[in-house]
Amino acid sequence: RAVAALAAMAMTLTACATREDVATISYKVHDGLRTGAGHTVALTVHDARTQDRGKIANKTNPYGMEMAAIRADREVTAIVKDALEAELKGRGFAIGNDGASATVAINRFYATFQSHVFSAEAVGDVKFHVAVTSPAGAPVYEREVDASGVEPGILLANGSNAAAALSDGLGKAFDTLFSDPAFLAALESGAGESSSNVKAGS
To answer: Helices (H), strands (E): how many in the chain?
Structure first.
């Protein structure tokens, strides 16, 4: 009976893995000092991904094989832009056409599922290229941001777990970016003499 039950469970999980998932990626704004009060930022986000542009993950079956696609319920550019706008507004910045211009290129936004001996987790890979220019169009800041989000202790390689890992990765990416004084200075001043080309975590 135990063997039959396990076989039936494996068949059920495999069947689920062949159906595509559509996931909602939620985002919680981080607390930050309102240093941007009185400053306006023009924000542009575009998709620079060279692979997996139509999905955010793949389901896997009980044997670790990639199965059906997991897609976001809206464009990844909209997800990232809304989250970044919320972070900026939470720090006192206004979004508009005056002041500095910030451009974010999404290079990677994808989750994978990793199985260990007694556990499994979803890992969200989030990579951006961020550039800021002055109101006159001069480059004042540039940086690559690379973050990994994790949703630990998962039972299913499904859309909700992939979304949770990517939400965590998105938060970590913005933590890295807003922890850089040069980024905030570029937004607040709208001008500068040099750019910052520092890779996150280096």
So the answer is: 4, 9
